[in-house]
Amino acid sequence: MSQHYYSKNPQTKSNPREWTDVLLGKKIRFQTDTGVFSKSEVDFGSRLLIETFEEAEIDGPVLDVGCGYGPIGMVLAKAFPHKQVHMVDVNTRAIELAKINVEKNDISNVQIYESDGLDAVVTSDFSAILTNPPIRAGKETIFRFYEEAAEKLAEGGSLWVVIQKKQGAPSTQVKLEELFGEVRVVDKKKGYFIFEARKV
C-alpha cells in the first residue's frame, strides 16, 4: 500500500517544520512533518469547519476524529476552555505532533490518543464530534466513522463533517440522513460542504 496520511506509521523521512497561523482570532503555533495531512498550512476545509462550528447547547466533551497535528481540536479547546476536547488519529506521527502542539500553545483541556476511527474511544456522551474525514482511506472507512460517531454522541449532540462535493458530499449526506434522520447543510463554500447531524 502506498504511504499517505491515513497510514498508521508513515515511512516517509521525518522533516519537521514550524509555522504560525491565526484561527478564530487566536495565534496558534504548529509543528508539522512529512507523512501528515496538510503539513504546510491549515487546509481550507478544516479552517471552514472551525469557523462554522456552533457549540452544542448540551454539556459534554468534544471529539476531533482524524485530528492530524491538531488544528481543529486545539482551536476548539482554546475557544471553549470549559470543554474537555478529545483528539484521535490512527497516524502515530500525527499524534506525537498534536501532543507537541498543545504543549507549545499551553492548552491543557485536551486528551490525545491513538485510535483507528473511534475504536479506542470509550467516552459515549460527546456533545459534539467533528471530522475532516480521510478521503484516501475510502468510503467504507469514512462511513464507519459516521456510524461510530452516532453511537458515541449524547442525545442532542451533533456530528459535524466537512467534505468536498467532488470527494463525496452527496453520499455523505445520504449516509448521515440514514443514521440521524435530519441533516443540516450549515455552509457551502468553494465546493466544500459543512454538515451538522444531530442525535435526537
TrEMBL record:
Keyword Transferase: yes
Gene Ontology molecular function, alphabetical: S-adenosylmethionine-dependent methyltransferase activity
InterPro entries: RsmC/RlmG, SAM-dependent_MTases_sf, Small_mtfrase_dom
Gene Ontology biological process: methylation
Every Methyltransferase small domain range: 28-195
The entry's keywords: Methyltransferase, Transferase
CDD domains cross-referenced by the UniProt entry: AdoMet_MTases
PANTHER family from the UniProt entry: RIBOSOMAL RNA SMALL SUBUNIT METHYLTRANSFERASE C
Protein name: 16S rRNA methyltransferase
Organism: Planococcus antarcticus DSM 14505
Lineage per the UniProt record: Bacteria, Bacillati, Bacillota, Bacilli, Bacillales
